[in-house]
Specification:
Layout: H1 2-13, E1 18-22, H2 26-40, E2 43-48, E3 52-54, H3 69-75, E4 83-88, H4 97-113, E5 117-122, E6 135-139, H5 145-159, E7 164-166, H6 169-178, H7 184-198, E8 200-202, H8 205-211, H9 214-220, E9 223-226, H10 239-249, H11 254-259, E10 266-271, H12 277-288, E11 292-295, H13 307-321, E12 325-329, H14 332-335, H15 348-362, E13 367-373, E14 391-395, H16 400-413, H17 423-429, H18 435-451, H19 459-467, H20 472-475, H21 477-487, E15 492-493, H22 506-513
Parallel strand pairs: 1-5, 1-6, 2-4, 4-5, 7-8, 10-13, 10-14, 11-12, 12-13, 14-15
Antiparallel strand pairs: 2-3, 9-11
Helix pairs in contact: 1-2, 3-4, 5-7, 6-8, 10-12, 13-15, 16-17, 16-18, 18-19
């Protein structure tokens, strides 16, 4: 609160004519203005259409209950002493040209003939063209970590012995970071909700707090909230990428920032479709206990002039409001395909892309971007510049040990004991398969066993269906080889160990399986 307090104090001392404070937290704003008024030796009075002029404590002002905005402006023209006049939710009246004219005259009179100031507090920013040069806009920030920490402490103290607290220092910090992006009221409500559920506060409540942010994301209309169901154990292979993500998680802690580390920006995953790029984004959300927001770029572009740019800004503000979070942008090359040249949309795609790039470069909020791409040729080159992402990973076809691990994951996921299967044989016969291909083999084998008298699935089911399956790599060998060639000097491999399987053509693949496809 110190930074916003200093900013407002400077504006008030400099006698700025009209200050427009944008915030949903009217109570926090009024409390700060009350403190500033006392510090500056001024009185504070509030106006609302329901109560007219009144004091912060609730008492009616001597100016009377002027519920009409015209009467309200007339009543504050001749203050008895320097006063901060605060108009609450005044934005609907700024569409009336008569009120706008009266507001301009009132502001001019206050600034020239008195030492008083006029402020508007509203969750909606509405500035008429006539008032644009006279209005100073202040975005009132949501509670920071210090305020949230005080709220958590106050809540725990108020409950006393009635509450069992089982949080370590790091878990307490994770809880407080999970509450970032909520208003003061939402923070209190979230705390009481998780406490009332079981009468205690522990690490398991952090995930419940993250779920509270779902409502904020739904209201944006552009971002989608993905619940964290997958874990890192559900990702077969990709050991380098998983280790990198595990290491990066620690960089979000408060002591890492105090140590001098920059907050992680994001990661770009490029590679073969179906090899775990999107799954990794979901698993990172679960491992980091952060909300996962899927950013559908197709929803950004609108038909009206300026609508696309406004949608991009709204999506970014929403992501920052619920930070720390993971912003997942799947197949990003499709959304920004028109950013590399003439796209027939009057440059809208290029402007939206430029705004997003600038935000990625300059962002200060802990929004970790996970972008995936399958077609590197359609990706704008500016996207690959150093500083946009912390790292670029290439996700290749899984090697033989990784294929065995992937089969094990999907068998266990369907409540089958992997120890009862010859996973080495499955890995050998699935050479050239993606992770998605292997999953489909497991699912098809289960279906075959079910339809064959509900018997248990066998190695023969898995191996037979694998031999009968034409994987994605066999239909697009040139494209995969092109991705590998590009990634050799431009990206870090997501896996270590044995090189990925050699890519066979469709004809070679059929010959190798000795079956008539």
């Amino acid at each position: 609160m110190s930074e916003i307090a200093d900013e407002l104090r400077l504006y008030l001392r400099s006698r700025y004519p009209l200050i427009y404070i944008v915030s949903h937290e009217e109570g926090r704003v009024v409390q700060l203005l009350h403190e500033l008024a006392e510090d500056l030796g001024k009185s504070l009075t509030l106006w609302s259409v329901a109560r007219g002029w009144h004091q912060p404590g609730g008492r009616s002002s001597q100016r009377g209950a002027h519920g009409d905005p015209r009467d309200a402006l007339a009543a504050c023209a001749e203050p008895e002493r320097p006063t901060l006049f605060v108009l609450l939710d005044f934005h609907p009246y700024l569409k009336d040209p008569t009120i706008v004219r009266q507001l301009r005259e009132t502001v001019h009179h206050l600034i020239t003939a008195t030492e008083s100031s006029l402020l508007i507090v509203s969750p909606v920013l509405e500035i008429p063209d006539e008032m644009e040069k006279e209005t100073t806009v202040v975005e009132f920030p949501l509670p920071g970590l210090e305020e949230i920490s005080r709220t958590v402490t106050g809540t725990l103290q108020s409950l006393g012995d009635r509450l069992e607290v089982a949080l370590g220092e790091e878990e307490r910090e994770e809880l407080e970071r999970a509450l970032l992006g909520l208003t003061q009221t939402e923070v209190e409500n979230a705390l009481y909700r998780v406490i009332v559920a079981d009468g205690k506060l522990d690490a398991s409540d952090i995930d419940d707090v993250v779920q509270e942010k779902r409502q904020i994301i739904r209201k944006s209309g552009i971002l989608e909230f993905y619940p964290a169901r997958e874990s890192m154990d559900d990702v077969g292979g990709l050991d380098v990428l998983k280790a990198w993500l595990t290491r990066k998680r620690a960089c979000f802690h408060r002591d890492a920032e105090e140590f001098g580390l920059d907050q992680p920006k994001g990661v770009l995953l490029i590679g073969v479709p179906g090899c775990g790029k999107s799954l990794t984004a979901k698993a990172a959300s679960s491992a980091w206990r952060m909300p996962l927001l899927r950013f559908d770029l197709g929803r950004v572009f609108g038909s009206y002039v300026g609508e696309s740019e406004q949608n991009m800004r709204r999506a970014i503000r929403t992501a920052e409001a619920v930070a720390p979070c993971i912003l997942w942008m799947d197949e990003i090359e499709k959304g920004f395909a028109g950013a590399t040249g003439a796209s027939g949309d009057s440059g809208t795609t290029q402007r939206v892309f430029g705004h997003f790039l600038t935000w990625m470069q300059e962002k200060t909020e802990p929004v970790f971007v996970v972008a995936t791409a399958n077609d590197i040729e359609r990706l704008p080159p500016e996207f690959l510049r150093k500083g946009r992402f912390d790292e670029i990973f290439f996700v290749d076809l899984p090697s033989e040990p990784e294929r065995a691990e992937i089969a094990e994951v999907h068998l266990r996921k369907r409540e089958r004991d992997p120890a009862g299967f010859d996973l080495e044989a499955v890995a050998e016969v699935t050479e050239g398969f993606t992770g998605a291909d292997i999953e489909e083999v497991v699912k098809a084998a289960l279906e075959t066993a079910y339809l064959d008298g509900r018997r248990e699935v066998t190695d023969g089911d898995l191996l037979g269906l694998a031999r009968a399956t034409l994987p994605l790599s066999a239909t697009m060998p040139e494209r995969i080889q092109g991705l590998r060639s590009w990634a050799q000097t431009r990206a870090m491999p997501a896996s270590r160990g044995a090189p990925a399987a050699e890519i066979a053509s469709e004809e070679q693949f059929r010959d190798r399986r000795h079956i008539d496809l």
